[in-house]
Amino acid sequence: MNFYLRILLTFIFIPQLVLSQSIQVVDEQSEEAIEGVIVSGENGSNFILTDKEGSINISQLKGEILTFRHLAYYTTQISRQELSAQQTIRLKPSAITLDEIVLSANRWEQNKKYIPNQIVNLEAEQIAHGNPATTADILSQSGQVFVQKSQQGGGSPMLRGFAANSVLIVIDGVRMNNAIYRSGNLHNIISLDPNLLENAEVVLGPGSVIYGSDALGGVMDFHSITPALARENEKTNISGGANFRYGTAANEKTGHVHLNLGSQKFASLSSISFSDFDDLQMGKERSSDNSEWGKRMEYVTTANGEDIIVRNDNINIQRFSRYSQANFTQKFLFKPKNNLDFLYAFHFSKTGDVPRYDRLIEYRNEKPRYAVWEYSPQEWSMHQARATYRPSRQFADQIRANLAFQQIKEGRNDRTFQDENRRERLEKVDVWSLNIDAEKVWKRETHQLFYGLEFTNNQVASSAQSINIDNGTVSPAATRYPDGGSSYKSAAIYTSYKWLFNEKSTFTAGLRYNLVKLNATFSDTTFYQFPFSEAKLSNGSFNGSLGWVFRPKETWQININLASGFRAPNVDDAGKVFDSEPGTIVVPNPGLKPERAYSGEVGIAKIFGGILKAEFNAFYTYLSDAMVRRPFSFNGQDSLLYDGTLSQVQALVNTGKAYTAGASVLVKGELGTNLSSLASLNYTTGRDLAEDLPLRHIPPVFGKWDVTYKRKKLRLSADVQFAARKWLSDMSPSEQSKTHIYTATGTPSWYTLNFRTSYKPKEFLTLQAGMENILDKHYRPYSSGISAAGRNIYIGIRAKW
Questions:
Q1: Distance (Å, whole) CA 379 – CA 411
Q2: Strand pairing partners for 520?
Q3: Contact call for residues 132 and 141 (beta carbons, < 8 A)
Q4: 537 SS3 class
Q5: Model pTM score
Q6: Fewer CB within 10 Å, N or C, the chain?
Q7: For residue 712, what pLDDT band results from cuts at 50, 70 and 90?
Q8: H-helix or E-strand containing 12?
Q9: What is the rounded distance in angstroms from the CA atom of residue 43 to the CA atom of residue 64?
Q10: Does an H or E element contain 3, and which?
Q11: Burial class (CB in 10 A: 0-12, 13-18, 19+), 418
Q12: In the chain, how long is the greatest CA-to-CA distance?
């Protein structure tokens, strides 16, 4: 009897022990814990992530076969019977795989092999090893995104011939683009803290079906660290991280620390970062053809109320390019049930004054045009409340509501040389947004539906004043945006469908309807006699997408994707008065219509022998009613006196048609057990077909070649980043007029050699050092108003507990 009782108890309790089993996932070579491994049940029915110690409890997963996936490792499948006999799962490192989990395509986790879009995926380890100074530098270091800079405190990514307000920035599911994002180069991306990012994804091509207006060239989707709860077998989770970096090129000092406190149902994450940059030193080594280009021979300083031109004692120091920035983040996570969680997050970012270097090197009548041109401290804050519910009902398997409120303050202060009046302009934007997203899977995971609603409300207030620096007298000045205030609202409904037709084919389709309304009031006619007192725009748009992914073999993937996108005119487009470059003034055009993009792309990925992966992508995008800057008439005049200069009147107009096209190649290879390589090459072209002129945001051919050695505690990498020449004749008219940032023929080609190393003497400690631009080359990326850093030696230390 006792024998049979033991047998019965074994059958009752052993499955329970297996179901509640806690396991650890580690690197096969280094034996280090792997955080962020996606462990899913059969058919991907549900999944969980390993924590910072690589641990996971598999009791929440369904099915007998569990799948372990991570971007940097081979995918592994293990049965529960095998798991019952071991406590540790070892994954083999690999950069060669078609399996990658991405979040950005439909706001929910998906395998990249089912997605027809080209996606650049940047993981936390890759970001940390690159030691980026700003979030813009994260994208630049990838070798797949071209970044322009007008000042050191900046960074404007270009995606497939689009930039600024034609590409979308998303943080933790919330769109950052607001009503005053301009068509010129933007630096808002630096508001995000690069030290707190888990990963970043760049979806190339129109993303309007899921993300709405502005996503013409693509979507940059950033994900910051989420608070971590205590594991099942522990009472509390006390963890965190810190890092410090010093760089020589700008005497950079960056510090960061974050702390996580978690119980079984509640967790808190606190983070603070600070960066300080002195004037940036450019490279000393110049070509004989451009031996004087970029040198900072002199600069303007003010003494006893008088502007004085001072000779620079070091012509390679870019005087007045310094800036500083602080970031603070606080998050709370509450999980009352396994299928329900609530997240509150607060982000705050503030810079010091950011001198706009490209304006400070302008000359007029052989003298500096400006004594002062700076962005006043830029502030960005965001409150986010998010709820995720997994009801397992007929209408949805997962539902997520994301409510956010953002406040943006940005100003511009300028004073022309030897002028006693300093103009100060300030813009304040309040943005409310609400997204409700749902996902439903049925018929053994072969059908998947995503759908949602989105609402946004932007309120813009613009003010300006002129201050006499001699006596302090304050007088009114013309505002940058409509002085009576502006509103910009949108509402949308969207859906996306994925059908796993068979093991080799996946079809996707999406549809979105978006309604955008703009209302701007011009109440003050003191400075400009506008022929209108308000601008009202109302634009609706249907957008769609069709995609096919074909996998003839496990080592082959072919993507075909068709998509449309749109960008509705915002307050910056329809209501701004500003000088874009010397001798021109841009005025409002209340007759603007949305620009629409129709894009097709083909992608091919192939793995050769399990050690080499090659990807090729080609695209063509046709723009209808594209918004470009052209000569315009204001009250019957083609020129106006602006800031003391007779300036040609320009405005954004819908030219009718334009195109961008291009191709990219990415090759990853395993050169040995511990050696890997990555190379990328990107080509883009585009023209305004109505005027037969080049488009503005078309970078030259650019790319990167990287070789990495990784063994146990050591990681070494060497890379070359490069860009081809861009002739002045191949630039848009607005770029050609910026003679102060280019050579007589345009932008010369350039390349840099870079070396980085990371060493982990202890599990919790990483020591880093590197040298960027080893040859100390002088170069200035296309469209940039500031030369890039010269030789930069950096050291860093990272701790994780």
A1: 10
A2: 486, 535
A3: yes
A4: strand
A5: 0.88
A6: N
A7: confident
A8: helix 2-19
A9: 11
A10: helix 2-19
A11: middle
A12: 107
